[in-house]
Amino acid sequence: MNPSKDFLNKISQHSVIFYIFAMIIQLDESNEKTIQMGGDCLVDSHCPLHNYMYLAIHTSCPELLVDKATRYASEATGMQIHIGRLSLSFPLDLVVHETQVIDRQDTILDVNKLTVKIQLMPLFKKQVELDGFELKNASVNTAQLMEGMLLKGKLGDCFIESHGVDLTPETAIVNTIRLKDADLSLCLADTTAADTTQTPPPFWKIRLDKVDLSNVAFALEMPLDSMDMQLRVGKASVRDGLIDLHNAAYTIGTFNLTDGQASYNSGNSPLADEGFDPAHIAVSNIQIGIDSIYYAGNDIRASIRQLELKERSGLQVLSTEGHLVSNSKTISIPSLQLKTENSYLDFQALADWSATTPGQDGSMSGRLMAEIGKNDLFKFIPGLPEEFRQRFPSSPLQIRAGVDGNLNRLELTSLSISQPEAFRMEAHGTVDLPLDSLKRQGEFTLAAHTQNMKFLQALTGDLLVPAGTSLNGLIKLEGNLLDADFKLAKDSGNVNLLARYDLAKEAYQTKLDIHELDLHAFLPKDSLFTLTASLDAEGQGFDFFSPKTSLQAGFRLVHLQYATRILSGIELDAGLKQSRAQANFKATDHLMAISAQLEALLHPKEIEATLNTDVQRLDWQGLNLMASLSRLLRISASA
After folding, report:
1. Which of 176, 289, 366, 573 fits as disulfide partner to 349, beta carbons 3.0 to 4.6 Å?
2. Is 0.85 surpassed by the pTM of this model?
3. CB–CB of 116/129 below 8 Å?
4. Can you say whether residue 346 is alpha, beta or left, with left for phi > 0 and alpha for psi between -120 and 50 degrees?
């Protein structure tokens, strides 16, 4: 029996109106209730399809239904809702023009055109065949609608096509999603507490066949944290995606992005004039290609086929390739290779998830091999003199590093930093319980050797690190105690340093011994030659105006050749306790016999000092200062 034309006409005119109306009033199928519309009919919320058929047949005027639906929604939400006009066609094709939602004079939502096309017959089987959902020229501004959050922006064109939505067993196939000319911003004021209510996850599985974005921008601002970020996508696409909401698992076959831009700003510091500024990052020309993406908790997989970008500082990544594999036990980066015009980086890592938990037996290991060109290096060390940049070796800085272990014991298996024909530095060591400030123990060794370091003179002036200088060191860590033993050697001269520092108390001890060090090799333009001297110091604190700071130090000059003269027998002892400083100077050799005493009271706003000197002998002629004095000279002074 064929349906009458009358029946079909009423279906054609009113079917989609009820569909939109039902969405607006959000019928709750868990409660038994009816809705009366102007006395014309009763709607049973237990059978939405029956309601749809009932209203489609018995409602005589679509304008009346739109009026009642918008009035009901306005009363329920407390907002003013307006629909300009709509067009209907059989079976469920709806075009709505000029929709507005206004809340307290703020336009929350403004949609120029909304088109919905749904097939009718699959609805009887609890299936939805969406031939098209299209939104054109929409704007949103949540204003005060959500406390602590503001979402606003514009959307030029959004289109969704979905064939295969099955309400039982909650599966959906989304064939096409297109988003074009969108610009959205989200401001989080952090004034609301997080919703900790736990709800069971839905069982929906959604397959995404094709997603395309074009000219889409998103901005996030967090003013209380002084942080903001922006992302702009020229073109992006997702293919073969799957969303499993119940298992929180997400799959993407391929992801591509071209002509992207991104920026990140943190804090209130001004933008650096040059170089890479980690507080103000801006990248452009972003090209990304990632295959076989999977994320489900600790189960993660991704294959990076392409990553290119250019940072504001001028740093440009030309290519990136790598893989990420993770399961419930381990996370692995079998390979990650990054190239710029001047640099190359190769990184490998493998770690158990438990390796980051103290007391667990999981392990981790990482290997890094990098060659950093000087043009890239100076982008991370800005502000260096142009002369230094020009004289710095053109060969890449070579870095090799390896780390093994866990939070119970970490081992630096190797670390080498070298600049060919300039210097080489190597280090290795271990540390136990690195996060326990009381029980941690560690030991590291360091060895460095120099070759041609003349490029440093652009920074150090007349000071030179001569070729053939070696530095060897041993660093020990026990709780908060840090011990260091360093030896610097050049030819037959050497410098030995023993030091201890308490990280908790800011207490220190140091002993420095210099033995026959040729200063002329380090200061070739000066007339300083062989030096033998020693320095001992012990104290606590570094604020010399604080009464809690204490210091006891002693210096001995045994031998110093200055031009043709020899200085020796010079002693200096100094102390500081409870803001009172004392210093005693004594110089006794064949050229002079001088002593001096200094007493001072140190306050943040005032310094009181008294200086007494006693010159018993001073050979001005031997010092090439003036003719020799034939009599003793005694000077006393106070200030």
Report:
1. 366
2. no
3. no
4. beta
